[in-house]
Write a structure and sequence with these properties.
Carbamate kinase, alpha/beta, 17 strands, 372 residues, 21% strand, five-stranded mixed β-sheet, single chain, Archaeosine Trna-guanine Transglycosylase, Chain: A, domain 4, 38% helix
């Protein structure tokens, strides 16, 4: 049994096969209403919720009379365009009954792989959460091509969890977790309730155990790839059977599921990634007051910066050094080098008057900073 209230920020991935009836192409309204009630309870307990939802293509099939047809990429994009508005309306109606505001966010591969776009996406989603909204995320299938797309929302959900510092990721699927082999064809297949590492043997269990449905695109293999992304980012991941109504609530009451353990918490894993795997593109020299503020866990403000070196863009990694030349931190900067030079030493309130825009008071937000 896993108590979902233990997670402070939870990403919930919902597959097409759960949301849309495969035969009729119609939305499973009662199922979605039950999910909304479960989400409302989690929100009431103080958990941030982000939803990654498939379903636009499946709903668009019905709308464009393409049910039962193998779709080309262009037809998938057309279905995504026709179905996305229906998907958005469905969540707005269901969660609106719980007095929850929803907001649509369409992402592509570049939004989670390119640091500049990653920073923009993260800032937007953080603002939505701060304002009390639940982001409803889907891949932007209308513009994505085979070369620049995820192709499944399992990995998109894992990247979202990584980007947003979530400590929990739930994949609602049509199977109740990971088995040692495909339980549909092997009576000796054993269910694994807790997985403490994504080893080659674990990855091998995803071959053939593909629960892909006609309206979906994922399988156990993609779920294990998602687990690897999430757990390395300090985020636990759960796979559970979401076909019946009230699936989220059932997890807390002992419904069978698989839980993939994370080795680190999200903040520590993120700090290690920033500190150890990113090569700085420039540096900021800070005064003693700013250095002290950083050591106390605060963001780096422009007022505490005395010099900027290097040619970096927004979202790039930069080094933070003391006046004596010692590197004290690394972080992802919110402004490019030219603009950072214009506002160094200035108060946060002056930024918008100097640059004509305001990308936040911090040159480096504390969530994007790793002390060394």
């Amino acid at each position: 049994m896993t108590d979902l209230s233990r997670y402070s920020r939870l990403v919930i991935k919902i597959g097409s096969a759960l949301l849309v009836d495969e035969t009729s192409g119609m939305l499973r309204t009662a199922w979605l209403d039950a999910l909304a009630k479960d989400i409302g309870q989690l929100r009431a307990n103080g958990t941030d919720i982000i939803i990654v939802s498939s379903g636009a293509i499946a709903l668009g099939r019905k709308r464009l009379e393409l049910l039962g047809k193998t779709l080309s990429l262009a037809e998938k994009q057309a279905c995504a365009s026709a179905g996305q508005s229906l998907l958005t309306q469905a969540y707005e109606r269901a969660l609106g009954q719980e007095n929850i505001i929803t907001a649509q966010a369409l992402l592509t591969l570049n939004d989670t792989e390119n640091r500049r776009r990653w920073l923009n996406a993260r800032n937007s989603l953080e603002t939505l959460l701060r304002l009390g909204a639940i982001p409803i995320i889907n891949e932007n299938d209308t513009v994505a091509t085979d070369e620049i797309r995820y192709g499944d929302n399992d990995r998109l959900a894992a990247r979202t969890a990584q980007m947003m510092g979530a400590d929990g990721l739930i994949l609602l699927s049509d199977i109740d977790g990971l088995y040692t082999s495909d339980p549909r064809s092997d009576d000796d297949a054993k269910h694994l309730s807790v997985i403490d590492g994504i080893t080659p043997d674990i990855m091998a269990m995803g071959r053939g155990a593909n629960e892909q449905a006609a309206v979906g695109s994922g399988g156990m293999r993609t779920k294990l790839m998602a687990a690897k992304i999430a757990t390395q980012a300090g985020c636990e991941m759960l796979i559970c059977d979401g076909r019946e109504s009230g699936a989220l609530g059932a997890i807390g009451h002992g419904a069978k599921h698989s839980r993939f353990l994370a080795n680190e918490n999200p903040k520590k894993a993120r700090a290690q990634w920033i500190a150890g795997t990113l090569k700085p593109s420039g540096s900021l020299v800070v005064d003693p007051g700013a250095e002290k503020a950083l050591s106390e866990g605060r963001s780096l403000l422009s007022a505490g910066v005395v010099d900027v070196t290097g040619d970096f863009g927004k979202g790039d990694a930069v080094s933070v050094t003391s006046i004596q030349g010692d590197e004290v931190a690394r972080g992802l900067i919110a402004y490019d080098a030219a603009d950072a030079r214009k506002i160094l030493g200035k108060k946060s309130a002056e930024i918008i008057h100097i640059l004509g825009y305001d990308n936040g008071a911090a040159l480096i937000h504390r969530d994007n900073l790793a002390m060394l």
